């Protein structure tokens, strides 16, 4: 088994073919806690390797790194276990956190079968069953197997009903399948567990609207507005929903609130600006867009808004200069947002400033 013998003064260090495996165990299963690892594998070859690793780290840097063991694929991992006469259950006090990162990396490259094989090892090792079930569910969803993904996520939630991310994944899956009531049920539970997940309120609103539950959608938006009064997007969504419900008085009231507000969040600029544009308030949009651009000069949506304000003020040269930036660097974004010009600039204005 010994392949290299290192000598340092009177000290002799044996490097065996199982050393990379032992480094992987220490890194991916024990988070580098060598004492805990040694306690779990006493009397094995891995214990000897771990003592070698301890000695090596006294002299060399960066011993416990993936470069010194990666990649160890599933079949090779089993061979190492057999050679060292260990099983996955031998690592009783390991966290397996790095092991789970390894599984995600395997899934990311599309090798879903290997990812599930490693997950089955985690199940055998009795590693946080709910988290393993959730991980299996998300990987099944990623691979396109929705039914298995749903089954495993639901299994995870039966074990641990507090898994917020499992509700999120399930909700998105049901929503994509057009099962809006099921999606809403998942997102309701997610919000109960994590009321600060603000984006989930919008997702729940969409599920209610698509399910024909507009009053419940409005209640969600009102709740979100109370939780985050600075969110202009919430109020814009409320105005749109009031219009959908035929309540023009409330729509106008909420739009007036938006008109009188100033955006706090940069992501609120575009919905806020559209309300301002509808009311010909181009100067205030230009002022706020420039303010945010000082903080973040690379936001294309702000430059799109400035193009509209420049054209409205007859500053075609300024508008063209900004347009050239899109044509040279971000033409994809321009065509994705071109409807902004179609909505707020007349055909003659676009023609005069060379906007096609």
UniProtKB/TrEMBL annotation:
Cross-referenced PROSITE patterns: TPR
TPR repeat boundaries on the chain: 130-163, 164-197
Keywords: Repeat, TPR repeat
SMART domains: TPR (SM00028)
SUPFAM superfamilies: TPR-like (SSF48452)
Highest taxon of the lineage: Bacteria
The keyword Repeat belongs to this UniProt entry's keyword annotation: yes
InterPro entries, sorted: CellSynth/LPSAsmb/PSIAsmb (IPR051012), TPR-like_helical_dom_sf (IPR011990), TPR_rpt (IPR019734)
Pfam families in alphabetical order: TPR_11, TPR_6
PANTHER family for the chain: LIPOPOLYSACCHARIDE ASSEMBLY PROTEIN B, TPR REPEAT-CONTAINING PROTEIN PA4667
Name of the protein in its database record: Tetratricopeptide repeat protein
Source species: Mesotoga infera
Lineage of the organism: Bacteria, Thermotogati, Thermotogota, Thermotogae, Kosmotogales
